[in-house]
Request: fold
Amino acid sequence: MKYVIILLAFCWIPFLNAQVYKPLSETQGVKSAIQKQHKETTSITADFTEKTTSTMLKEPAIGTGKFDFKKENKVRWDNSSAKQLILINGDKVKLYENGKLNTNPANQKVVKQIQGMMISMLSGDFLNEKDFTISYFEATKHYKLVLKPKNARMSKYIQKIELLFNKKTNLLDEMSMIESAQQSIVYTFTNQKINQTISDSKFTQN
Reply:
C-alpha cells in the first residue's frame, strides 16, 4: 500500500490549507495557464516534505527528500528519510530501498502503474479529464484542483487528489493524496527550480 500512496502517482504547509477556497465558474483560463506552464517547462528540481497521516500511526510521520523531472519521461524521486529511491527513465522504472534494487514482481508492477500517474501529473495530461473528474477552486494565493478517479479500482486506494497551484508561477506547491478522512499523504514542494540543465545520469543507477 505504501508504494501506491508514495507516488500515485505528489505536498504540508498549514497556511496553504488555511486559505478560503471558492468554486471557480470559469475554469478555462486556469486550465490554459497551467497547460502553458507545463508546456514551457523542460525540467524541474525541488525539495519536498512528506506528511503521512494514518490510523496505524500515533502521530503523523514526517519525511523529506529531493525530486527531479526532465522531459521526456525522466523522474528521480529520492526519499532520503525512508531511504527509498524511484527512478523513471522512459519506460524503465526501478525501485531502490536502502540502496538495493527491489525486484519483487508485485512491487515492480505497482511502481510501473504509478509511472503513468506521475508522467500525467508532470506533463499536464491529467487536465484532459480522461482519468479524473476535476473541480476547480481559488483563494488569494492558490488555485486548488480536486481530482476524483474515474477508475473504480483506483478509487479503492485513493478517494481524491488535491493540487495547489501557485497563482504567480502556476507551479505545483502542494499535492495531497487522500485515501480517507483518516488516511492521507501530503507533499509540499519548495526551492523549485525550472528549466535548468539536469544530466541524464541523474535518472540511472548502477
User: Anything to note?
Assistant: Residues 1-16 have pLDDT under 50 and may be disordered. DSSP finds five helices and twelve strands in the chain. Helices lie at 2-7, 14-18, 28-40, 105-123, 152-155. Residues 141 and 168 are 8 Å apart (CA to CA).
